[in-house]
Amino acid sequence: MGSERRTVTLAGSALKHRCHACAFFHDTEEEYRLLLPFVKEGFGQGDKIFQIVDGRHRDERRRRIGSLGVDVDAAERSGQVEVRTWENAYLREGRFDQDAMLALVAEVLGRGRQKFGLTRLWANMEWSLEDFPGVDDIVEYECRLNEVTARLEDVVVCTYDLNRFSATVVMDILRTHPQVIVGGILQENPFYVAPEQFLEELRARNAPVQ
Fold this sequence. Notes:
The chain is α/β, with parallel strands linked by helices. It is built from seven helices and nine strands; from the N terminus they run E-E-E-H-E-H-H-E-H-E-H-E-H-E-E-H.
């Protein structure tokens, strides 16, 4: 896309390049206040809108998108808007398989590029707090996701409720994202660690004690 890259505004900032951001919120209203304009802008310029939510909140998410003036039913039929539940993404077959999820993201972004040019992916990450096999791999997954997003121009935002995640997990998540939204502001993340370095650290951390 290069110089023809479309306008992307996220948390009030204009992006000049691809983005894989973690967004930390204290409540749902804060999350919607900051990310619904990102959806509205994208829909208006014909971008693919891909969302992954708790199934219990799917109707609410569709209603919120509709409040932007989007005919959600029609947009879903055309493929421009897709709102998936955790069970149809992260927790397929009752477990979290990071390889399968990375493949799914790559597929979604690839298809989006072919038909719409740019995909805006907004994913709620509290699925990792559920009692399913594999959910402890979330930090490694977020790190490896950079290998997918680095090849593309899409915008991926992973949202985290600060009231639900421990400080230790939040710090690890922070270190796996090149960009971060905190306090309602998007910024380049000074704590970001390159995937190969972070994966090496994870392997050392998880190695059996001799």
